[in-house]
What does this fold into?
Amino acid sequence: MTTSAFLPLAKLPRTPASDLKKLGWRGMMNALRSKGKLVVTNHDEPEAVIIPVAEYDAIMQLVERAEAQTESTLANLRRTFDERLSVLQGRSAATRMQSTIRDRAKLGGKVKAGSGC
It folds into this structure.
């Protein structure tokens, strides 16, 4: 299922909650099969969305992939941060830091930015 199959709530077919009482569950499932998705309203305000199980499963798969991608990205950021931070834990870190502080920067009127040791 593609994300283009997900419509905004305002564009989904609507049915009042009273239809559930009038038509019963079987009637609601028939409406669901014919319309694909249903927004159940109460006093014209959305209260629930009924979707087929296959669509729910597809949504959950998208969520799981997004969570896995986020976790992978965070793990890469942590690794990169730890690698860059490890420079400060080396034996020569204190000496280099003192040297940097002691020596005047020779920038020649230019701003120096970026990483490098």
